[in-house]
Design a protein that fits this description.
The chain has 7 helices and 13 strands. The protein is of the alpha+beta class and about 270 residues long. It has an 8-stranded mixed beta sheet, with helices on one face. The chain is globular, with a radius of gyration of 19 Å.
């Protein structure tokens, strides 16, 4: 088995090993492969792709994600090999490491030195929940470069990490919640991962979520600590599908999960 950088020519092979319940992870690699913050690797055995994984390298932290092994190759230590390689890359750059793990994966990552530091909950909406609004919220408008600094500062406050190099690439189609076109209270990036929604107020967060759900997204993933939002979703008969465990290797970040109304994805929180 050999580890090497993932190349553009490998992208069409990823669906062969894609877990059926994970969505199309090849799209993550396609969107970020040529960026300096993105480090992606593959494992091959006799020229066959048997595993992939990637690292999102931020200012003070790095996220491991999309660590996948071909089903026929499982049980041979491929996943551990990928994880350890990505960990070494992140540690060599002086980063605190984070990842989101399934209940089964949590056991494996704990053995490698990761510690649980929070949970995310996957909610599935019932039929007819969060219908598209009959008219747009007058406080929601398209992104304007004048709002750039406020958006980046808000995301930093919410996540405790500087994700600006990633976010800037996806602001062209963003929506912003702002009263009287002044202070930004929230934003929604429909083209980044699962549709990131960060907000300082419940009014902004819920309105932007309604816009997100009007686009037909049936699942929302939020921090378990955002109890107010979890309660609102439960009142609307949304149901929890499963948890995911946020795990860290290194120092914990200072973040505000109550500002997260919809995450990016397991590879970036």
């Amino acid at each position: 088995m050999q580890i090497s950088p993932l190349e553009a020519k490998d992208l069409d092979l990823i669906p062969e090993i894609n877990p059926p319940d994970w969505g199309d992870i090849s799209q993550v690699f396609r969107r970020h492969l040529d960026q300096d913050y993105f480090y992606a690797i593959k494992v091959t055995d006799e020229s066959q792709l048997i595993g992939v994984g990637e690292l999102m390298i931020l200012e003070n932290s790095a996220w491991l994600g999309n660590i996948v092994v071909r089903e026929a190759a499982r049980g041979r230590g491929v996943g551990k090999m990928i994880t350890e390689h990505l960990m070494q890359k992140g540690i060599s750059k002086g980063k605190n490491l984070f990842l989101l793990a399934t209940p089964a994966g949590e056991i494996i990552y704990r053995k490698l030195g990761f510690q649980e530091c929070g949970r995310y909950l996957f909610f599935k909406r019932p039929e007819g929940s969060f219908p598209a609004p009959t008219r747009p919220d007058p406080n929601i408008r398209r992104f304007d470069p004048l709002f750039l600094s406020e958006i980046l500062q808000m995301d930093l406050a919410a996540m405790g990490e500087d994700r600006s190099r990633v976010l800037i690439r996806f602001l062209y189609n963003a929506w912003v919640y702002t009263r009287d076109n002044r202070r930004v209270e929230g934003f929604y990036l429909p083209d980044l991962g699962e549709g990131l929604v960060i907000a300082q107020t419940a009014a902004a967060g819920m309105s932007l979520l309604q816009l997100r759900e009007g686009a037909g997204k049936p699942v929302i993933v939020i921090p378990e600590e955002h109890a107010e939002l979890a309660g609102r979703l439960t009142e609307r008969e949304w149901t929890v599908l499963r948890p995911a465990y946020m795990m860290r290797f290194g120092e914990m970040k200072a973040w505000k999960p109550g500002m997260v109304y919809s995450r990016v994805g397991g590879y970036l929180g």
